[in-house]
Amino acid sequence: MQNTLKALGLKEINDGCSTGKNWFANGEILESYSPVDGKLIGKIKTATKADYQKAISAASDAFKYWKTIPAPKRGEYVRQFGDKLRAKKAELGKLVSYEMGKSYQEGLGEVQEMIDICDFAVGLSRQLYGLQLHSERPNHRMMEQWHPLGIVGIISAFNFPVAVWAWNTTLAWICGDVCIWKPSEKTPLCSIACQHIWNEVAKENNLPEGISCLVNGDYKIGEYLTEDTHVALISATGSTRMGKLVGAKVAERFGKSILELGGNNAIIITENADLDTTLVGAVFGAVGTAGQRCTTTRRLIIHENIYTKVKDSLVKAYGQLKIGDPLDEKNHVGPLIDKDAVKGYMSALERVITEGGKIIVPGGVLEGKGYESGCYVKPAIAEAKNEMAIVQHETFAPILYLMKYKTLEEAIDMQNGVPQGLSSAIMTLNMREAELFLSASGSDCGIANVNIGTSGAEIGGAFGGEKETGGGRESGSDAWKAYMRRQTNTLNWGNTLPLAQGIKFDLG
Ligand code: UN1
Q: How far is CA 101 from CA 44, 96, 332, 408, in A?
């Protein structure tokens, strides 16, 4: 690991703030411990309010320059950033795995998501199109243009410590915005590694300070960002509780926000499902990233005629899961992020029982050799009712709830019958069932899949969800529009001034 840290520019004690080539920080020390082995990975000096202000002023200055650079040229810098990520994929993937605890394969996958969004953003930098409209007046032209917003504040979560930042920052950059990133306190070293990579691009191209700023610290940094009128857009990923606070604060000052909050994702398994692919999709969806994705499969809604068969094959598959060091590729499940997460998992399992659920694959915390960090837990399965309070709640851990249905309409009601609305799936080879699920009478989620699980979305689609998930959309499709402001232009090239709506205003 030491070589990996060195290759990524990480030291024993790191300044947690950067505006480009400058690194600084005058606040308290934050320590980053790995959930893999409980060892201290490195220390980070966090930001004070004054450090934050320094980042804001660097970003404000940078915006004046950056917005004048042609978008395809900004795309060229993002292309270089993507190339550097390709070169550092193994090291960054390893750090993600070690600091966050996801499997090395998933760590590499996360860096691949960064590379993919870079490619997407490069192409997009030549496609920031607006509409051309017909005016009701003669000799007039109407059009829409998209202009950059200014400073974008990115608040990211521990579970995707690098990819979600990249979704936001690469689009924001090509749109002409500058960014300030407040990463999770649980994965600060990943953020520092990413900033080093961007700083290389900035240095090699003589770019000014402030296009990408990093500000490590606790929730106070999040508050500074959300309350600061200099920050035009806040893109926040995390819990619904956090999103409610951020959304309200930003709206109060008429700022814009993109919220990507909790999920409570279900797969409907119909009688017409291919049970082999269903099993892979359901198990990866439920235990991948140890159940800590916002897209994790938390509920399986199974047709009563195949319920026992599906249940038995799930129990068998869970019996084969290997839990342990996520850097060892034979393991399927790594640790939870920290001991608080373990507590949350344990209390959720207790609540399942007190609320009337039945545990069929018991959970528990693993102890002994290889599990010294105290963060390894067993993926659990419970039979439960959709209405139970614990089932309605997102527990960021590998607990899967099974429930039965009779009619597809009933299954869709159950799938939709939770406060969250991020991802959903149906497993069926029957096109009528699939189309109903995708129709307006089907899933109410931002993501609805057929014959794949709820997690593992590609960057090319718009990512996000409805209801308590917050309504934001990030990454692909036309999500870029949220990082820009729309301007409607009407241009008169005639020699009279006809007014719209036929209004007469004659000066005689
Ligand atoms: C998240 O958990 O916040 O679709 C993001 C997925 C990943 C992104 C998850 N591409 O599971």
A: 19, 7, 12, 37
